[in-house]
Automatic annotation (TrEMBL), chain A:
Domain CheB-type methylesterase: start-end pairs: 6-186
GO biological process, any: chemotaxis
One MF term in the entry's GO annotations: protein-glutamate methylesterase activity
Xref: CDD domains: CheB
PROSITE patterns on file: CHEB (PS50122)
Class in the EC hierarchy, top level: hydrolase
UniProt EC number: 3.1.1.61
The protein, known as: protein-glutamate methylesterase
GO cellular component: cytoplasm
UniProt keyword Hydrolase, yes or no: yes
From TrEMBL, chain B:
Short name of one Pfam family: CheR
Tree of life domain: Bacteria
UniProt xrefs under SUPFAM superfamilies: Chemotaxis receptor methyltransferase CheR, N-terminal domain (SSF47757), S-adenosyl-L-methionine-dependent methyltransferases (SSF53335)
UniProt-listed PANTHER family: CHEMOTAXIS PROTEIN (PTHR24422:SF8), CHEMOTAXIS PROTEIN METHYLTRANSFERASE (PTHR24422)
Protein name: Chemotaxis protein CheR
One MF annotation (Gene Ontology) recorded for this entry: S-adenosylmethionine-dependent methyltransferase activity
Domain CheR-type methyltransferase residue range list: 1-253
Length: 193, 275
């Protein structure tokens, strides 16, 4: 895979996903380098009240530190952060997280759009956002913001997605920088470091 | 209702915050910016403002619009018996302890449209403590307080609230607490009798009483660490020894120097003032 100049500056990776994305995470996380030079922030739609389950599940799959986001926490390199259920996760200019219990966006809380958009403004050209399998279009507007602020957009190849709607919508509505199969994702992420 | 590059930039947000402080004495400078900015942009596009200059002028010169602005940039979303397990702990652990006192004074700070206040009132009634309790339900925003005082909520929410109520340990028929009126559920006046709704700004107003229980849930997440410390200090001053402080499910006392004086109720965001 080619390395772009831009990608060498990656300061954060945000991954958004919905239906069918857990399986992707479970395959990608084990292959990630244990010394990533940026934080990995994961926003997936899930049921309220199942909070500690996802960090537990994912931390068994990687040697990177995995934790649920706490409000006002600083995003650190080499850590995988999971957005809590039922709150929106926002990223501040000083790279700390804020949680917000405002209205659902795209019928979702957390909404991928909210984290992508605030992340885009905080990290600007040094952000990579990746949208995975899912059945609504949450995340698509967020990717547009990422583009507008100079970041890099990535989608799961809709052909490989359990539910293709979300990445397919993204590809329809904007020019995506990279379209990846599940097999290529870990290599791609490791190369950003 | 979104923009690729913001309709309003960071400097403009700061200008508006400075205006609010100068003209109205409302200090939002200690609020987390990402959320605030998102709300301001949301309102800007919702109200189809023509330019930043026009938007700013209206906020500064039209008191009615100013009210709307404050209402819209703060997050007012709430529910009855939200986080049922929390209310179960109130019912099973905290309130029975306080029930041994001759009188229970409760401060519910950031009560929004009142759903939480009526939930607590229902539990107090079921524990047979309502007659000797008083709930001070406060918020900075007069608009939500007016709504709260009407004790009417959307009927469409009642199924969810009834489920929450049962999950929180409620055993009665939840619908016995309200009468359906078109699309609204009007809650019994009895529940309201022991609630005092009034404005109080956690940023600038002082303590106004001593309480055995203070609840402030999902308000501190909007504040930066300094303001959180300041507000926790205010709660500490307002809490009687052995009183309880309850925060939202993502909020904590851990980072405050005050935490050494408190003992946490296991598994809940509730702390007891032990010294
Ligand atoms: C998300 S609601 C929380 C409602 C309820 N406590 C709950 O957890 O469901 C936040 C409330 O805090 C209020 N608020 C924000 N800043 C405040 C301040 N400085 N003083 C008092 N209330 C404030 C807002 O007006 C809003 O009603």
């Amino acid at each position: 895979m080619e390395e772009s100049e831009l990608m060498k500056n990656c300061e954060a990776l945000i991954i958004g996903g919905s239906a069918g994305s857990l399986e992707v995470l479970l395959r990608v996380l084990p292959a990630l380098s244990p010394t990533l030079s940026f934080p990995v922030i994961i926003v997936v739609h899930r049921k309220h009240g199942t909070d500690s389950l996802l960090p537990d599940l994912l931390s068994g799959k990687t040697s990177l530190k995995v934790k649920e986001i706490e409000e006002k926490e600083q995003a650190m390199a080499g850590t995988v952060y999971i957005a809590p259920s039922d709150y929106h996760t926002l990223i501040e200019q000083n790279k700390t997280f804020s949680l917000d219990y405002s209205e659902k966006v795209n019928y979702s809380r957390p909404a991928i759009d909210v984290t992508f958009q605030t992340g885009a403004e905080a990290y600007k050209g040094k952000l990579v956002c990746m949208l995975l399998s899912g059945s609504n279009s949450d995340g698509v507007n967020g990717l547009k913001s990422v583009k507008a602020w100079g970041g890099i957009t990535v989608i799961q190849d809709p052909e490989t997605a359990q539910v293709s709607y979300m990445p397919a919508q993204a590809a329809l509505q904007l020019k995506i920088d990279y379209t990846l199969s599940i097999e290529d994702m870990a290599d791609f992420i490791n190369l950003l470091s | 209702m979104y923009s690729e590059v913001s309709l309003i930039n960071d400097e403009q947000v700061e200008i508006l915050l400075a205006d609010l402080l100068d003209h109205y004495g409302y200090d939002f400078t200690g609020y987390s910016r990402a959320s605030l900015k998102r709300r301001i942009i949301r309102l800007y596009s919702l109200d189809k403002a023509l330019s930043f200059a026009e938007f700013r002028y209206q906020i500064n010169n039209d008191p009615v619009y100013f009210k709307r602005f404050v209402e819209q940039i703060t997050v007012n979303v709430t529910e009855m018996f939200r986080d049922p397990v929390f209310f179960k702990t109130l019912r099973d652990v905290v309130l029975p302890k306080l029930g041994t006192y001759p009188f229970i004074r409760i401060w519910l700070a950031g009560c929004s449209t009142g759903e939480e206040a009526y939930s607590i009132s229902i539990i107090l009634k079921e524990l047979n403590l309502l007659h000797k309790s008083l709930i001070y339900a406060t918020d900075l925003n007069p608009v939500v307080l007016e709504k709260a005082a009407q004790s009417m909520f959307a009927l469409s929410q009642m199924k969810q609230y009834s489920e929450n109520y049962i999950a929180s340990g409620g055993q009665l028929d939840f619908s016995s607490y309200y009468t359906a009126n078109y699309s609204l559920a009007k809650f019994d006046d009895e529940l309201k009798r022991k609630i005092i709704f009034s404005t109080h700004n956690l940023v600038s107003d002082h303590t106004f009483n001593e309480f055995q229980l203070i609840l402030c849930r999902n308000v501190l997440i909007y504040f930066d660490r300094d303001l959180q410390h300041k507000v926790l200090q205010l709660f500490d001053e307002s809490l009687q020894p052995l009183g309880y402080l309850a925060l939202g499910s993502k909020e904590t006392l851990d980072f405050s120097p005050l935490s050494k004086n408190y003992k946490r109720v296991p598994a809940e965001k509730i702390w007891r003032k032990v010294s």
